[in-house]
Amino acid sequence: MHMKSLIGFLFLSVSLLFTSLSAQTYFTAVGVRVGNSVGISAAQRILPQVTAEAILQNDLNNTTYLHLIGRYHKPVLRKNLNAYFGGGLHFGTQNEVGGVAGVDGVMGLELNLNHFSISADLKPQWTSGPNNGLILNSGVTVRYILLKDNVFTPQGRESRYKKRNKSQMKKNRQKDRQAKKKLRKGLFG
What we know:
This protein is of the alpha+beta class and about 190 residues long. The chain contains two helices and eight strands.
């Protein structure tokens, strides 16, 4: 009975952990992807736990692909660490074949730190054409976060206003002190 209670408690704890956190901490991020191929990546949040990602990559064997992928994010332990999975399509060119297209899958982990998003993933893809087949890609992507998650929310606007307002108030206090010093020197100097 003790083992069942422990398993139940662990399951409940993990469930609460996954449901109580937000999975995304950015709206827009761009960066570099390195793995089986080299490329650039842009991710845009389109729903609270969903991002759309575009990856333009070249495998250095004269094969270039554009991947359009949707990813669903779930938090893991903390707000800034999440697991994701999804899928999409890719289009590209292969020297010996010409134009190709196919289907992608993706699953990975993403860590968001200040202005950077770092992810590691597995990305299986099936490509049509004479060289068709399943290819398992893996990679690490480092993106710079251009827009954070609170940029469009009332709380985000309010915090930015407060920061600006605090900064302006500090400048005004410094100007007041300088004016008082000048006045004292003029009266007593």
